[in-house]
Amino acid sequence: MNRIYIFSLLAFFALSCSSDKVVYLPSTSSPVSNMLLPEVLEVNYAVDLDTTASDSWQKSFDSRAFLSEFMESVYRENIPVYSPFYNDTAGALITAKYLEMDLGNFAGNKEYKWGSYRTWKIGFTEQWHFDTSEVKFTKLVKWWYPLFYSPADSSNHTLFRVSSGPSSEILAENMICEVRFDDAESDFSRMDAGRFFDWMVRAAVSKKIEVFPPDTFSSPLTPETIRQRLGEGEVSMTAMDDKGNATVQTVLQKYNLNELKGMIFIEDWYYSKSTGCLSKTVTGFAPVRYYEDENGRMLKSIPFVFYTGEKKVAVL
To answer: Whose CA is closest to 284, among 314, 261, 306?
Structure first.
């Protein structure tokens, strides 16, 4: 991927304390239909493609071959594509002749190049639902679309979209992707991320759900280790006594849920070659923590991973 991230597996504490208070909700023992709010949450976001064949997060997905075959099907009009300016498919069908005006004649998709554009991302419009009774995260794909990057204006453009529909053929297993909820290219303004993280952390600490470290799933994490990985731990602080002398005190620094700003998802992707429809099954997810170390460097870590079933895969 083009982004370079710094992960810290042993995220025991951070010295940069936040003044924001962690507000806890009433008991989460009573399940709710959708913890994310509203009842049906629609989001738009993009997933970076592995263009180097070296990304362990997309081992089973040959994005170059997939896009090449998909593009040929679109040009032959075997797969219908629709205008991004309409919310449904009525009257929004885009013909191959119209696409040729922007992308040129079909000559094969080489090195992710479509005409004068490059495709390094896939965008999704999805409906998200999180059921606390079954601890199940559902993503219903309404639309998906390749994003066309233009060197002329250094921007990604949506030229067409593929509608939702049945898709039963496995396209890629164990697709791991990160979504940051404050990403400018995403749309999570209606999502109650704080409420979701609060439920997830408290469920993990109380052993309501079983969670694992990101690099192994041999044994679940203990509540104490979960707190440590969220940033809880003893820190030394200098204070002045009544006589003006400096004293060093050891205090317990609680973890701060405001440091959780994103999610890692583990997904199986399904695809229909005849219609271009794509669907997903979420098999695991994990919060992502962003914080500063003692030297002021911004770091991020994955405190724990929850798996929805027996299928498990290491994230790191």
So the answer is: 306
Polymer length in residues for the chain: 316
Torsion of CA 287, 148, 169, 284, to 10 degrees: 0
Determine, yes or no, domain membership for 83.
yes
Distance (Å, whole) CA 219 – CA 256 = 25
For 265-298, write each residue's pLDDT tens digit. 999 999 999 999 999 999 999 999 999 988 889 9
Q: Does any domain span residue 7?
A: no
In whole angstroms, what is the distance from residue 92 CA to residue 162 CA? 11
pLDDT tens digits, one per residue of 80-89: 999 999 988 8
| Rounded (10°) CA dihedral 180, 171, 157, 154 | 70
Torsion sign, CA atoms 66, 70, 73, 75: negative
Residue 159, domain extent:
41-307
- Residue 134 resides in a domain: yes
Note whether residue 101 is domain-resident.
Answer: yes
d(Cα 281, Cα 94) in Å, to the nearest integer?
A: 29
Instruction: Give the side-chain half-sphere CA count within 13 A for 89.
Output: 9
**Integer Cα distance of 223 and 111 in angstroms:** 47
